[in-house]
Amino acid sequence: MNKENVLYLVIPCYNEEEMLDITTKELTKKMNDLIASKKISSNSKVMYVDDGSKDATWSLISKYHEANPLFTGIKLSRNKGHQNALLAGLMTAKKYADITISMDADLQDDINVIDKMLDEYNNGSEIVYGVRSSRKKDSFFKRFTAQSFYKLMRLMGVEIVFNHADCRLMSKKALDGLEEFDEVNLFLRGIVPQIGYKTSVAYYERNKRVAGKSKYPFKKMLKFAIDGITSFSVKPLRLITSLGFIMSIFSFAILIYSLVVKLCGNTVTGWTFIVCSIWLVAGIQLLSLGVIGEYVGKIYMEVKHRPKYIIEKELD
């Protein structure tokens, strides 16, 4: 029989007061079933991480903790974003748990995938990625942007698991490895594959959100993609170098063309072409400076080495 491991479910929350009652009810049943079947230890818990919510999220977490020792939580001093909140929960849970599973508070990650993850862990995997089996329930726009995100990341050389978000199991050993990554700009989907150790995949159907609003609109998704690329790939900088080389050849060709036109006495000919060329080159230069600026900005944040999160309160 497998050892009854202490499992902590780490659930980042930001303004989830509309969803938490539903989530807590479902997780209570799931955790009690797992404990009763001796798949996990009776010391296992659900850890909510309040990411500086402005609503009653922390009050609800405190209420669940007082009513049921199965629930615990930590409160960050201010909103630090999903990735930092998740890391705060994982590093706190590491002190008490043998294994952790991270999921979103909206229950879009099917909680039944927990069983599959535990089976994979018992078969020797230190990290188990929760991967969506399909995107049929998504709108065309959501499906297109999500698939484009993963394809772009791979094209840029970022090692990432396709259709995997942040639903994953990590052993204490894997969390110790994650703690060694000291970077401030967090992109856990790219960092976790760098840890190594044996990994596997557990597939699940993603559900629709039943209450509250999504915390990841298109603007945030776009920023997330840019952060992921610039944190793990220098290909954009190399593309700028290649583009500069191509533009240099193109400029040399334009120089020859201009001399020929001058010698032929047709100085007005090509005016439109020259104006368009100036705007094109100026646009490319500004875009290139913007890309370089992203990298410089990340270096600036890393050099300051400010804390990724500050825990204001922790429930016992």
Please provide a written account of the structure:
By secondary structure, the chain is α/β, with parallel strands linked by helices. It folds into two domains: 232 residues, Spore Coat Polysaccharide Biosynthesis Protein SpsA, Chain A, CATH 3.90.550; 70 residues. 52% of the residues lie in helices and 15% in strands. It is built from ten helices and eight strands. It has an eight-stranded mixed sheet, sandwiched between helices. The chain is elongated. The model has no long low-confidence stretch (mean pLDDT 81).
Structure described in brief:
The protein has 316 residues and is an alpha/beta fold.
What's the structural blueprint in terms of helices and strands?
Layout: E1 7-13, H1 17-36, E2 45-50, H2 57-67, E3 71-76, H3 82-93, E4 99-102, H4 113-122, E5 127-132, H5 140-155, E6 164-171, H6 172-179, H7 188-195, E7 199-204, H8 218-232, H9 235-263, H10 271-304, E8 311-314
Parallel strand pairs: 1-2, 1-4, 2-3, 5-7
Antiparallel strand pairs: 3-8, 4-6, 5-6
Helix pairs in contact: 1-2, 9-10
Q: What brief labels describe this structure?
A:
316 residues, 2 domains, 8 strands, elongated
Instruction: Quickly count the domains.
Output: 2
What top-tier CATH class of the largest domain fits best? Alpha Beta
**CATH 2nd-level architecture of the largest domain:** Alpha-Beta Complex
| CATH level 4 superfamily of the largest domain | Spore Coat Polysaccharide Biosynthesis Protein SpsA, Chain A
Q: How is the biggest beta sheet arranged?
A: 8 strands, mixed
3D shape: elongated
Number of strands: 8
Here the CATH topology of the largest domain equals: Spore Coat Polysaccharide Biosynthesis Protein SpsA, Chain A
Radius of gyration: 25 Å
Topology pattern, helix = H, strand = E: EHEHEHEHEHEHHEHHHE
Low-confidence runs (pLDDT<50, min 5 residues)? none
Please estimate the helix content: 40-55%
Strand fraction band?
5-15%
Alpha-carbon distance between the two ends: 30 Å
Looking across the biggest beta sheet, what order are the strands in? 7-5-6-4-1-2-3-8
Number of helices: 10
Q: Briefly note the structural class of the backbone.
A: alpha/beta
Could you report the average pLDDT, rounded to the nearest whole number? 81
